Amino acid sequence: MNLKTILVKYFLILVILQIIINLIQILKLNFILPIGNLSYSIIYVLIFIFLMNKLHQIESRFLTVILILLMYPILILFINFILGNIFIQFCNDVTDQSFDGILNLFENSCNFTTRFDLLQFIWDPYSAFNLIFFEGQFSFIGNLALSPYILYPSVFYVFILFKYFKLKKINPYQSFIPILNKLQILKICNLPLIWIFILLIPFIRLFWLYKINSKLNQIESINNSNTIWMTLFPSYFYGKLIFK
User: Fold this and answer.
1) Residue 193: C-alpha distances to residues 10, 50, 179, 187 (Å)
2) Whether the predicted model's global pTM rises above the 0.85 cut
3) CB crowding 199-220: b at 16 or more within 10 Å, else e
4) What is the pLDDT of residue 94?
5) Distances (CA, A) of 240 to 33, 134, 160, 175, 227
6) Secondary structure of residue 166 in the 3-state scheme
7) Which residues contact 165 (CB under 8 A, 6 or more apart)?
8) Which residues contact 158 (CB under 8 A, 6 or more apart)?
């Protein structure tokens, strides 16, 4: 299966999934699939993981994978926008009482995406950050974590470590545990495990991370110019460990 076929396949999966979700919402069948931000995120993350796995299997280029990572949330928004403007036509107006028969099964109001607003990817996490750190409203931590350009790069980073550990004959499930996965990287690099304590110190940790990433690049024969990017943006540039 080539790259084009995989992308078309997963595009159709996303479209079909969104149609099903919209139908569940408009027909009030939420007992089949609870509708909410968390439900959406879990489903889309699972599809994203399967997509990344397929790209890894066909040995896709790193830049291609990063482009797909960046475009994935935009594609979801685009599909929601197109289908939202279609399905919104079947939603009853709250003030309209003229619907009879089967139309009464429809929701009186439908929370469909009808605007293609890319600014929400910046504004939503920014608002959540302000509410958490400046107003102490910690209930918005979930909103921040579910922001697409925080969620998907984080998932991508764990996916990379999972595959990399598997390649190195290390229990790949250790990639899910933050401190433990760093210990395994130190072992791979033959560096002192005591460094794990330095890696817990904000800002100072960057110097040691640079050393670790430089060693990783040396082991994997990756251009050392990638070291600075791996240090500053690990959620993206660690991808070079498995995508060449």
Assistant:
1) 41, 33, 11, 7
2) yes
3) beeeeebeebbeebbbbbbeee
4) 41
5) 37, 36, 9, 16, 11
6) helix
7) 171, 172, 174, 175, 181, 184
8) 175, 176
Same-domain status, 8 and 96? yes
Domain that holds residue 26: 3-118
pLDDT, tens digit, for every residue of 44-96?
A: 999 999 999 999 999 999 999 999 999 999 999 999 999 999 988 877 654 34
Query: Are residues 38 and 102 both part of a single domain?
Result: yes
Say whether 144 sits in a helix, a strand or coil. Answer: helix
102 pLDDT band (50/70/90 cuts)? very low
| 27 pLDDT higher than 50 | yes
| Same-domain pairing of 26 and 108 | yes
How far is it, in rounded angstroms, from Cα 20 to Cα 43?
12
